[in-house]
From TrEMBL, chain A:
The keyword Transmembrane applies. It is found in: Cell membrane; Membrane. Belongs to the CPA3 antiporters (TC 2.A.63) subunit D family. The keyword Transcription regulation does not apply. This is Monovalent cation/H+ antiporter subunit D family protein.
TrEMBL record, chain C:
The keyword rRNA processing does not apply. Keywords: Cell membrane, Membrane, Oxidoreductase, Transmembrane, Transmembrane helix, Ubiquinone. Pfam families: Proton_antipo_M. The lineage of its organism: Bacteria, Pseudomonadati, Pseudomonadota, Alphaproteobacteria, Rhodobacterales. Residues 120-339 form the NADH:quinone oxidoreductase/Mrp antiporter transmembrane domain. It comes from the Bacteria. Its main location: membrane. It is found in: Cell membrane; Membrane. This is NADH/ubiquinone/plastoquinone (Complex I). InterPro entries: ComplexI-like_HydComp, NADH_UbQ_OxRdtase, ND/Mrp_TM. NDH-1 shuttles electrons from NADH, via FMN and iron-sulfur (Fe-S) centers, to quinones in the respiratory chain. The immediate electron acceptor for the enzyme in this species is believed to be ubiquinone. Couples the redox reaction to proton translocation (for every two electrons transferred, four hydrogen ions are translocated across the cytoplasmic membrane), and thus conserves the redox energy in a proton gradient. One of its GO terms (biological process) is ATP synthesis coupled electron transport. It is a multi-pass membrane protein.
């Protein structure tokens, strides 16, 4: 029996998840081997598919349990963009997490849900229909909650509660929208244009709004972002996963699917949906940055930064123009690389130096040079300084804004750049220029923590500095945009 | 021998044996009867799936003279689910209902009552005759009341008393309706009634039967007997009471409104039933939110989940998907709710009570049953990929295709409320501090986990159940004005 | 992947400093990194002398890098490379000081950016280069980590980032208008497109910040003196020219002309006069830089041939100003009276050149542009020599009072080389740039025109020594009653927090209990049962 590729891709994390749940706590070696093996296998599969998909191939697997219900997995170029991000960053996060947790308790539960979470993300990436997307989207919600609440102390449980408090109503909205839409259009397949039939324009708008509410909660669009800063109570690998790979990205990816594949660019402009979404994204970009300024905890500051940065993706998508879409899609990868670097570093500061608040960063740079250099690179990238990845996104978003007749985007980008600088540069200043506090001891004798961090940072540097190379995320995003705009 | 007959006689025989023989033998006989019944249920289901639904006319007389027993997709699905739940319950009861643990009274009474309940359920699921159905639910009520009272505590007896009052009132109304039908048509067979010539008293008969059955199903506002009764019974009994018993009267209602007398249905009446269902969803959920004992939370959750089933009524004549959706809801509720009560039973045995604060941190000692509860919660909240989600999804789709999106609201809202009231026990279970308690073995914890997993599997592998249900699915009929 | 297309040298000129800078991070090289700095600009100097004109492409780098040269930028590139070599040599004594490797690394990054500004042929590369030179130079400013340096660094980074943002937006508008990223096309598009004026304004601000255009110059008199001497030299001599190069590249002919003329002249006079209130010789020099850049920006604003000649003027200023800053360092190191005297004498020569004394490079520079300017501006240019002389006279006075450190080796050779270049280079390039014979500059008229303002300024300086102006803090406009207020904003809590969950739960419990009791009371629900049957009957029978 041959297993179709999309299913195989899903199994690379589902199987480790299923097995890990039943492993005893002491089976460290087996558990690690399972997690790493799955991650490596997935990366290998993706690399194998990359060139075929670039050439226009796509892989499909599906079943229809009941008329009107279609479970469809499909690997197309957009899916591969997201799935390769999640696969590569998952590999890094797994290495990091294994080192981070060491022999702490409840690891089988953790790594089980960890793998499940990535399986859900893979499913989201590969979903070929809206219904399938929703299934995996909810699976993601459920598998993330135990990760957020993993520490089981009061702040973690509160964070978990808040996460569900936001997630449940928003997913109800999402379900509502999907049912409403599909009852009028039949199953919504991403690869095929949606026939809206007799649905009134205002109903279409309402459906769009509900879909955005559902996706936007995960993408932390203001005012649905409140759970994200609270979720920083989770362990560092979870934060990294949440902010860079899985949850937030899934939301952004959902927005991309809705705009790009469910409604389509023409309908978006016809219904006038782009501008409100772009405005919402802009508000989020600025609000996230402004709130980040006031945070004294490193992870909280990073969390608000995520709120802001993820909406770059949404902004790019909502502007409905080739350049903006390229910028948005590329930022999906770019933000992931940069933010995972930053969270890895925050985890190392916490773990190796006991530093959680920005005051503690004073003078850590020379003591933890690798970590701090990576942190600095990530932060500079977030500001959008060349040649880091964030810079490339910003250029394309700015050009896209102009191209789509929304020059005000430039003002948003400018303000966001300055705000980003305002909340990141003081951190770098503390790291490298302040005198260290005597009681803070820090070292980085943890190669398994530092190595993934360095790789992620180099990635964030590389995709920016070599953005024009034929295999960069930018090139991939350009390919996608070309397919969307050139017949 | 026909599997249908086995389904009715074997559990009854087992019940008799359990009464007649001494304790040790009784349990063995009961379990053997159970195994046989499970096999019979599977046999019936496979026959239905193969396209040859079994049907027998008792005594060789065809209706209206004789009484017909027949299985269609709906019966088969319910039979199998019931078999799964009963098997799990009895497996769990092997330990907890032993004389040493539960006392001689319970140990003696539980097995015959449980098997009698099973026989009654099977009878209701395969009967095609309204009076036969009456006999079935009377038997069911008797067994159920017995199970509530079995603990012998004063509260339990009071709850059983109240339950019996409601059950009797309901039976009377139902019987009155049956009498009216018989008087008008001289037949009680569902298939014959479907092709009857309408009579003036049909409306009254349907109203009486419906009112009676809603009381037995514990539809709001007739649910007041349910929480104390279900919470007061021993956990395996609660599992049966909550997961299966309401389904019997619900199935009769469903058959009445879609198979026997679909032409009588009027939109306003359906709306009234639907409205009561919505009220039940809201009230049951609020009730669950207000409780601080897990058993009561789970019992109120049943009130809310029953509300779902009725909230679908207005859609039944309008969209095909509503019918399969509501059955999916019923099936997954059965599996999930039984899993919950069995898990709660294990916790109560370990922690000595079911107050939320007593359960804090229990997940450490009993990860599997805690996980079972979590999975069941996923089903009840209607989250994918569970069967509960699929049912909800089908009903919502039906609501939208019928142009009646209002009836999708309780589905969406109810899911949120369920998530809210189930979050509290879950948060308590998964809290960090944990008393060290004597946990049951992994094998015993696996029982509720298997049931909860079944609720999820119902959604994952929905193709087969849906295909099974399609056998004998009543066609939708536009309401005659 | 294609690494590059076309001549390698331009790319090598940029990568080579980066490699040296990266090597500075290696443990083995770290201690010797300072000694390598002078090597970093060598390929660039070679490039400037060889004058490669073919374009180089590095298609995979960034968004596709294009490099090339034109005559004006070639001049600036050569000057920059030369100045950085000399400054790199001057930095060698810093090798023993702490954090030398960090300094060396960012020195090289800044250098690479500075060179790339002159080589970039596309918008993105230019922006990247500009950002590199702007932001990496921050590390040169704060290197000493004194309070003054850190404070200057703070102002520097805020202003520089604001400039970056203005540039980015301006460049994006330009690139969009042109539909291309080639700088020449962008400049053409900025002149015609509707978004052009906004972009020109933003670019003027962005470049003006770097070039010290009044009133955006406030960071300059703080930052340049705060840096170590070699860094001050490149900051004032070469890095400010990046702003100039940007204006020359991007501003369409005549765009922002009046503003540049007005602000340039205001800077030329105002900064020179404000310099007289300063005590630190490096600050005086920094104000002099603002003043000289004001003149050069005025040329840009005037347009035409004057604008074309701006690099020629900048060449001289860069070399001379570099020499002056190095001389401050030399003075700090000078031990004996004789050494101090030699230092002062050399400083006087360099200062005279900046002021435009006859036969100096400065005089040539002014002569080259004067005839291309309208009469009023030409007059203003001449008059500015008076204030320049005043300022530099004051500088010499302050320099003379700078204490020495009694070190044996006196690095006078390096400023001497720069001074000589400042004199010689304008002469050597005179004919190429003006198209006139060297005799023109030797004509008595020209000599007289150059002499009188310097003489007048010198006289004024002598008076000033008797009656010095009161001391004012550096940073002029910044010290106006503007106070940075640091406050962490407080945000209102979410309303969800305000609700008392316990109270809500209690209310819910009560409501449920009451409701259930009501349903049980007098068997209410038993009464409801017939009622339901009745209602259903009504609805069914009525076929509603």
């Amino acid at each position: 029996m041959t297993v179709p590729l999309p299913v195989l891709l899903l199994l690379t994390s589902l199987v480790p998840a299923a097995v890990t749940f039943f492993l005893p706590q002491e089976a460290h070696r087996l558990r690690n081997a399972l997690s790493l093996g799955g991650a490596l296998l997935k990366v290998a599969l993706i690399v194998a598919m990359l060139f075929a998909v670039a050439g226009g191939a796509s892989y499909e697997a599906g079943l229809t349990p009941a008329p009107g219900l279609m479970l469809l997995l499909r690997i197309d170029a957009l899916a591969l963009l997201f799935v390769s991000l999640s696969a590569i960053l998952w590999l890094l996060t797994t290495i990091y997490a294994i080192a981070y947790f060491g022999t702490k308790p409840q690891l089988s539960r953790f790594f089980g849900f960890f793998s499940l979470c990535v399986a859900a993300t893979t499913g989201i990436a590969l979903s070929g229909s809206l219904f399938t997307f929703f299934i995996f989207f909810e699976l993601l919600t459920l598998s993330t909650w135990p990760l957020v609440a993993h520490k089981q102390d009061a702040p973690s449980l509160a964070a978990g509660r808040r996460y569900l408090l936001y997630a449940m109503p928003c997913s109800a909205a999402l379900l509502w929208a999907i049912v409403w839409l599909e009852s009028a259009t039949g199953p919504v397949i991403f690869a095929a244009p949606t026939d809206f039939g007799t649905l009134a324009p205002n109903a279409q708008r309402a459906i769009f709004a509900l879909l955005i509410v559902g996706m936007g909660m995960k993408a932390a669009i203001v005012p649905l972002h409140g759970w994200l800063p609270a979720a920083m109570a989770a362990p560092a690998p979870v934060s990294a996963l949440l902010h860079a790979v899985a949850v937030v990205k899934a939301g952004a990816f959902g927005v991309i699917r809705v705009v790009h594949d469910v409604f389509g660019m023409d309908r978006m402009s016809e219904l006038g949906l782009g501008l409100p979404l772009a405005a919402l994204a802009s508000v989020t970009i600025l609000w996230g940055s402004v709130r980040a300024l006031g945070q004294r905890e490193i992870k909280k500051r990073l969390a608000y930064s995520t709120v802001s940065q993820v909406s770059y993706i949404v902004l790019g998508i909502s502007l409905i123009g080739p350049f903006a879409v390229i910028g948005g899609l590329a930022h999906l990868i770019h933000q992931g690389l940069m933010k995972i670097t930053l969270f890895f570093c925050a985890g190392i500061y916490d773990e190796r130096a006991g530093v959680k608040r920005i005051e503690g960063l004073d003078g850590l740079g020379p003591r933890m040079p690798w970590t701090s250099t990576c942190f600095s690179l990530g932060a500079l990238g977030m500001i959008g300084l060349p040649p880091m990845a964030g810079f490339v996104s910003k250029i394309y978003l700015g050009l896209g804004g102009l191209q789509s007749g929304a020059p005000w985007v430039l003002a948003v980008l400018a303000a966001s750049t300055l705000l980003n600088a305002a909340y990141f540069l003081p951190l770098l200043y503390r790291l490298w220029f302040r005198e260290p506090a005597p009681e803070v001891q820090g070292d980085e004798r943890a190669p398994a923590l530092v190595a993934p961090t360095v790789v992620a940072a180099l990635g964030a540097l590389g995709v920016g500095a070599l953005a024009a190379a034929p295999v960069s995320p930018l090139a991939w995003a350009t390919l996608l945009a070309e397919r969307a705009w050139l017949p | 021998m026909n599997a249908l007959v086995v389904l009715l006689t074997l559990p009854l025989g087992g019940a008799l044996a359990a009464v007649a023989f001494p304790a040790g033998v009784a349990r063995g006989a009961a379990l053997a009867a159970a195994a046989g019944t499970v096999a019979a249920a599977l046999a019936v289901a496979s026959e239905v799936a193969a396209g040859a639904p079994p049907r027998i006319a008792l005594g060789g007389w065809p209706p209206p003279l004789g009484i017909a027993l027949a299985a269609d997709g709906l019966s088969a699905a319910l039979l199998v689910t019931t078999a799964a739940v009963m098997a799990a319950v009895l497996l769990a009861a092997r330990h907890t209902m032993a004389a040493g643990l539960a006392g001689p009274r319970i140990a003696f009474g539980f097995w015959p009552l449980a098997l009698m309940l099973w026989a009654a359920l099977n009878a209701v699921f395969v009967s095609r005759d309204l009076f036969n159905l009456y006999v079935g639910i009377e038997l069911l009520s008797l067994a159920a009341v017995g199970l509530v009272a079995i603990g012998g505590k004063p509260e339990a007896l009071a709850a059983a008393m109240r339950y019996m009052l409601f059950a009797l009132a309901g039976s009377l109304l139902y019987l009155a309706g049956v009498a009216l039908i018989y008087a008008a048509h001289g037949a009680l067979d569902i298939d014959l009634l479907a092709s009857r010539r309408p009579s003036g008293t049909d409306a009254l008969a349907l109203a009486l039967m419906t009112a009676g059955l809603t009381a037995k199903t514990a539809l709001f506002p007739f649910h007041v007997w349910l929480p104390p009764a279900h919470a007061g019974a021993p956990a395996p009994a609660s599992a049966m009471l909550s997961a299966l018993v309401p389904k019997a009267s619900f199935v009769i209602l469903l058959r009445l409104w879609t198979e026997a007398l679909p032409d009588e249905a009027s939109p306003a009446a359906l709306t009234l039933i639907g409205a009561l269902g919505v009220a039940a969803v809201v009230w049951g959920s609020l009730g669950a939110l207000a409780q601080s004992r897990v058993k009561l939370i789970v019992a109120y959750s049943t009130v809310a989940q029953i509300g779902y089933l009725f909230a679908v009524f207005p859609l039944l004549p309008l969209a095909q998907a509503a019918w399969s959706g509501v059955i999916f809801l019923a099936l997954s509720h059965a599996l999930a709710k039984a899993a919950m009560f069995l898990a709660v039973g294990q916790w109560m045995a370990a922690a000595g009570g079911d107050r939320l604060e007593e359960l804090r941190g229990l997940a450490q000692a009993m990860p599997m049953s805690a996980f079972a509860f979590a999975l069941a919660a996923v089903t009840l909240a209607g989250l994918p990929p569970s069967g509960g989600f699929l049912g909800k999804y089908m009903v919502m789709t039906a609501a939208f295709t019928a142009g009646q999106w209002v009836w999708a609201l309780p589905m969406a809202l109810g899911g949120l409320l369920a998530a809210a009231y189930l979050y509290r026990p879950l948060a308590a279970l998964f809290a960090r501090e944990g008393a060290s308690v004597a946990a049951p073995s992994r094998a015993r914890q696996a029982v509720p986990l298997a049931l909860a997993g079944g609720g999820i599997a119902l959604g994952l592998a929905s193709a087969e159940p849906l295909a099974l249900l399609a056998n004998g699915q009543p066609p939708i009929q536009a309401v005659v004005r | 992947m294609t690494l590059w297309v076309g001549p390698l040298l331009p790319l090598a000129a940029l990568v080579w400093p980066l490699l040296i800078g990266a090597a500075a991070a290696l443990p083995g090289v770290r201690d010797r990194a300072m000694r390598l700095l002078w090597l970093a600009p060598l390929p660039a100097l070679w490039l400037a002398l060889a004058g490669e004109s073919a374009a180089t492409l590095a298609p995979d780098l960034l968004l596709g890098v294009t490099l090339g040269l034109d005559p004006g930028r070639r001049l600036l590139l050569g000057m920059t490379a030369a100045l950085w070599i000399v400054a790199g040599l001057a930095a060698q004594p810093m090798a023993e000081r702490p954090r030398a490797a960090i300094f060396a690394g960012f020195w090289c990054l800044t250098l690479s950016g500075n060179l790339a500004v002159f080589l970039a042929q596309d918008v993105v590369t230019f922006y990247v280069a500009f950002a590199a030179v702007s932001l990496a130079a921050w590390f040169l400013v704060v290197h000493e980590r004194t309070d003054a340096a850190l404070a200057a660094g703070r102002v520097y980074i805020v202003v520089a980032l604001a400039g970056e943002v203005c540039l980015l937006v301006g460049l994006l508008i330009g690139a969009h208008a042109a539909g291309a990223t080639a700088i020449a096309e962008v400049r053409a598009a900025l002149g015609t497109s509707p978004g052009g004026p906004l972009a020109v304004a933003l670019l003027t601000i962005g470049f003006g910040i770097k070039a010290g255009l009044v009133p955006l110059h406030v960071w300059l008199p703080l930052a340049h003196p705060a840096a170590p001497v070699p860094a001050s030299a490149v900051l004032s001599g070469a890095i400010v020219k990046a702003g100039l190069a940007g204006m020359l590249l991007f501003l369409p002919e005549g765009a922002a002309g009046p503003a540049l003329i007005a602000l340039g002249l205001a800077g030329a006079y105002g900064a020179a006069l404000w310099a007289l209130t300063q005590r630190n010789p490096k600050t005086v020099l920094a104000y002099s830089t603002v003043s000289q850049m004001g003149l050069i920006l005025m040329l840009v604003g005037a347009g035409g041939a004057a604008r074309e000649a701006a690099p020629y003027v900048a060449l001289h200023h860069g070399l001379a100003k570099g020499a002056l800053f190095l001389l401050v360092g030399a003075m700090l190191a000078a031990g004996s009276r004789r050494q101090r005297a030699a230092c002062l004498a050399l400083a006087a020569v360099a200062a005279a050149s900046v002021a435009g004394a006859p036969l100096s490079g400065g005089a040539l520079a002014k002569a080259a542009v004067k005839s291309e300017l309208p009469a009023a501006l030409a007059q203003a240019l001449s008059l500015s020599s008076v204030t320049t002389t005043l300022a530099l006279g004051w500088f010499l006075h302050r320099l003379a009072r700078t204490g020495g450190a009694h070190r044996s080796a006196l690095p006078l050779a390096l400023p001497a080389v720069l001074t000589a270049l400042a004199f010689a280079a304008p002469w050597a390039l005179w004919q190429d740039w003006t198209g006139r014979a060297p005799v023109y500059a030797l004509a008595p008229d020209a000599l007289r025109a150059a002499l009188w303002p310097v003489a007048a300024g010198g006289l004024g300086a002598l008076i000033l020594l008797r009656f010095p102006l009161p001391e004012k803090p550096p940073g002029d406009l910044l010290t106006l009653p503007l106070r940075w207020r640091r406050a962490t904003p407080r945000w209102p809590e979410l309303p969800a927090r305000a609700i008392d969950a316990a109270k809500l739960a209690a209310a819910l419990r009560n409501a449920v209990a009451r409701g259930e009791r009501a349903l049980l009371r007098r068997q209410a629900s038993a009464a409801l049962l017939p009622l339901l049957a009745l209602a259903l009957f009504g609805l069914l029978a009525g076929r509603f």
